[in-house]
Amino acid sequence: MKKIVICTFLIAAGAASLLNVNNKIESTAPDFGFKNSYAITLGYDKSMSEKTIKAAVIDSYFRDIAKNGKIIRWNKNSFPLNVYIQDSADVPDYYREIVMSAYQAWQRASEGLVRFEFVENADEADMKCYFKNTSDNKNAIGSHAFSVSGNKITDSTIVFKKTDDKNHNLDSKQLFSSALQEIGHSLGLTGKSISIYDVMYPIGTKFNTEITPRDLKTLALVYSVVPDVTNVPPTPEEKAQMFTVAEILSTLNVPVNDNTNVDEVVANDIATHLALAEQLRKRAQYDKAAQEYQAVAQMKTDRRSKSEVYYEVAVMYLDAEEYEKAKSCAEIACATDMNDLTNTLPALIDYYTKRSNSAVEQLEAILKENPYNKHAYKLLCQIYRDKHHENLLNSTIRRYGKTAGEIEK
């Protein structure tokens, strides 16, 4: 059957986070067997310093994937993977185009680490996408599943809903956001991010249409370790250049086990404080988690990075419905550094506390002053989508889509 080939585009966005130019490694090399060499490459392998790998793990959600027990991903040499997207008369034409654009977005953002070709026959495909309403996707827009035989991936299937809960066609950005996340799952991102703006963040705005550096670093780390389940087992030569999960995690020297007694852990660096904060957050010990985040913020050297930490604490308390504490953290974040992210915090708090009209007024004012604020744009779209104000949603997309959130074609 005829194939529609996606050309490989290399773009600057995301390149800085994955193109690593390392200094020579000191003579006291880690036990990984790192090579004493310079490395310029996309992704991570044993030619890189322990410092580089550690920085990537800290600024990713690889640990959440690792805790699932198995790394499931495709063999890098199998790319481009064949992708079938159902061409159904039951859904609008733009559904298929949106899903195709989401695959292209992953290919471009990853600089070709993952690549795809579209095929017209499902029997030829490694990845299959369908549009249908089922009991499995009653709440979520999309759902993903690997087909596995033993330790071998045979294929991957994504199912998207045909309509929303009111039997209306899905909004294009809503579908695009869901497609990015489900494709991420199908590439091996089986965990989730706790950062509200990552593609793999499971709750919150659910309107993320931009693949972030954290998403990309996590993807690159997943493809740097020996997989437990894959479509084609790596050769001994390929394995020699890959890490084990234990080797990746050992760069942090911090607990990652959910059963760890956190009271016995002594934190002396950012990585340990951050690991403790995330573990305490998962256990709903929010005040203790906030103390660890505070330690992280104090160890940061610039105001922007500090404010991002306080922002995360504010979101943590919002998710926990502890709104007064969220407001206090929001005030600290804004006072530390007023930027596009922190500027939206008061509106975000109003959104969580059911004061949508106030949130809308603030967000409209922010976008009027700065039409490039993608954070305000995403939240405003989410509010209109939640309230099913389709006219206002479409008007917002027309006004600010090209400056703050245009879907990549």
How does this model look, in words?
With 409 residues, the chain is of the alpha/beta class. Helices cover 44% and strands 10% of the residues. A 6-stranded mixed β-sheet has the order 1-5-4-6-8-7, with helices on one face. A two-stranded antiparallel ribbon has the order 2-3. It is globular and about 55 Å long.
Write out key terms for the chains shown.
409 residues; alpha/beta; Collagenase (Catalytic Domain); Serine Threonine Protein Phosphatase 5, Tetratricopeptide repeat; 6-stranded mixed beta sheet; 8 strands; 44% helix; 10% strand; disordered N terminus
**Average of per-residue pLDDT values:** 82
Question: Under the CATH scheme, which architecture of the largest domain would be assigned?
Answer: 3-Layer(aba) Sandwich
Low-confidence stretches: 1-42
Q: What is the fold-level CATH name, i.e. the topology of the largest domain?
A: Collagenase (Catalytic Domain)
The major pleated sheet works out as: 6 strands, mixed
Q: What does the overall shape look like?
A: globular
The total tally of domains equals 3
CATH superfamily of the largest domain: Collagenase (Catalytic Domain)
**Which structural class do you get from the secondary structure elements?**
alpha/beta
Number of helices: 16
Give the amount of beta strand, in percent. 5-15%
> How do the SSEs run, as a string of H and E?
EHEEHHEHEEEEHHHHHHHHHHHH
E-strand count: 8
